[in-house]
């Protein structure tokens, strides 16, 4: 089996349009959540979101091609270019056929569906663009990143709701470990801050309605949490076999040592209150790494700021780690970015690797009132300088799908 390492990172998020800005703003406790600007949300019960600001696809993509992409794909192509620059890698020669792409998407092209449906209703089928289907399908993010990068290896899209990004990293890790590829571009992307997307989530009463205080609306593990905040963005990693990374003299930022996946087999949208499915995925990642649970120093939590998710994730962590659960530094990035849905696992994996590489653990914002049911160390005092050796990154999605990645500080 090949050892798998991380040699590149990129992020376009509500708190920054590149990895360095996003990371620095995360550590500074800056929020990317504000009133929605992409459409008039005045009639919605929730009117706030974590939007990517000042993103111009033409900075990365020729105008004609950008017009034929949904925003989630534009974000992925831009992040893909940033990733290869960060990793100092470009697929060439034999590397092309041994480099693949796996990018997760939760919902896909809602904006185009909405605008084209309106055209259909108003003017009939002849007014629908011939690019409609290629624009909206979820795998087009991975497809376009492959086209722009020249990667001709495995090319896939994981569509597992809010676990899509993490499942994609797990699939990429597995392909390299088994020798199917030497290099993989992987992570998640999403952009569904649209009237239809918001209408769907508000009708479920899933979103926070704290519209008068956007920056403090996302409150993972806090007693006053009232729902999640929708976000958008993309987070990508470059994974390589250790041999390939060493051969090209790459900087190694961390190692992938475990992947776990499970199903709740319980409910369409709600986890079981004992968190058993979440626990199964965490246990599987730890078991694959061959370590004791007590060796995990840090968890990048799913931490959505919904009552049931945060309660169940806390229960699951206690089940897996026992008394050690109280020694683990836990972070919920969504407190500052909102929930990137299919892009969340990619972004949070990127931040997990930054934690390993820098020896800094980000905090969790907006813990204003302690919840006796969520009584672990969630980093309420902000970022801390502490070297983590093992970081677990959690993602849980509708349909009862769970995914966890276990990363390790790299050692020769």
Description:
By secondary structure, the protein is an alpha/beta fold. It folds into two domains: 4-247, Peroxisomal Thiolase, Chain A, domain 1, CATH 3.40.47.10; 260-408, Peroxisomal Thiolase, Chain A, domain 1 (3-Layer(aba) Sandwich). The chain is 33% helix and 18% strand. It has 13 helices and 14 strands. It has helices at residues 19-27, 63-67, 71-87, 110-123, 132-136, 140-149, 164-177, 195-203, 242-247, 276-289, 307-321, 334-337, 344-358, and strands spanning 4-12, 34-35, 48-49, 99-104, 155-156, 183-190, 233-241, 254-263, 298-300, 329-331, 360-361, 384-385, 390-397, 401-408. A ten-stranded mixed beta sheet has the order 5-4-6-7-1-8-14-13-9-10, with helices on both faces. It has a two-stranded antiparallel ribbon with strand order 2-3. It has a two-stranded antiparallel ribbon with strand order 11-12. A hairpin with a 3-residue loop joins β13 and β14 (401-408). The longest helix is centred in the N-terminal third of the chain and has 17 residues, at 71-87. The radius of gyration is 20 Å and the shape is globular. The two termini are 16 Å apart. The mean pLDDT is 97. This is 3-oxoacyl-[acyl-carrier-protein] synthase 2. Keywords: Acyltransferase, Fatty acid biosynthesis, Fatty acid metabolism, Lipid biosynthesis, Lipid metabolism, Transferase.
């Amino acid at each position: 089996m090949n050892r798998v390492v991380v040699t590149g990172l990129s992020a376009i998020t509500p708190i920054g349009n590149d990895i360095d800005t996003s990371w620095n703003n995360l550590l500074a406790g800056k929020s990317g959540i504000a009133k929605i600007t992409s459409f008039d949300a005045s009639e919605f019960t929730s009117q706030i979101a974590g939007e990517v600001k000042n993103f111009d696809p033409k900075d990365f993509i020729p105008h004609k091609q950008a017009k034929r992409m949904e925003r989630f794909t534009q974000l992925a192509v831009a992040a893909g270019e940033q990733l290869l620059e960060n990793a100092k890698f470009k697929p060439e020669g034999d590397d092309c056929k041994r480099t693949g792409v796996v990018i997760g998407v939760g919902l896909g092209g809602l904006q185009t569906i909405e605008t084209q449906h309106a055209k259909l209703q108003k003017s009939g089928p002849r007014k629908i663009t011939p690019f409609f289907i290629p624009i909206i399908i979820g795998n087009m993010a991975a497809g376009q990143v492959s086209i722009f990068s020249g990667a001709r290896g495995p090319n896939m899209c994981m569509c597992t709701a809010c676990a899509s990004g993490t499942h994609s990293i797990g699939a990429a890790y597995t392909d390299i470990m088994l020798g199917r590829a030497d290099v993989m571009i992987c992570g998640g992307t999403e952009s569904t801050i649209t009237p239809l997307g918001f209408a769907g989530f508000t009708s479920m009463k899933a979103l926070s309605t704290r519209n008068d205080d956007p920056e403090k609306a996302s409150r993972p593990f806090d007693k006053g949490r009232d729902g999640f905040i929708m976000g958008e963005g993309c987070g990508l990693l470059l994974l390589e076999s250790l041999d390939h990374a060493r051969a090209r003299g790459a900087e190694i930022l961390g190692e992938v040592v475990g992947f776990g996946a499970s199903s709740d087999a319980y409910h369409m949208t709600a986890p079981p209150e004992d968190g058993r499915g979440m626990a199964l995925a965490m246990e599987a990642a730890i078991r694959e790494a061959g370590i004791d649970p007590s060796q995990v120093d840090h968890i990048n939590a799913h931490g959505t700021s919904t009552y049931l998710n945060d309660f169940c994730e806390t229960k699951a962590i206690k089940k897996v780690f026992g008394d050690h659960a109280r020694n683990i530094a836990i972070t919920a990035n969504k407190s500052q970015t909102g929930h990137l849905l299919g892009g969340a696992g990619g972004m949070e994996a990127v931040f997990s690797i930054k934690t390993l590489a820098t020896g800094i653990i980000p905090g969790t914002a907006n813990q204003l009132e302690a919840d006796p049911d969520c009584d672990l160390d969630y980093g309420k005092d902000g970022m801390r300088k502490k070297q983590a050796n093992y970081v677990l990154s959690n993602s849980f999605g509708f349909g009862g799908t769970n995914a966890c990645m276990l990363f390790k500080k790299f050692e020769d």
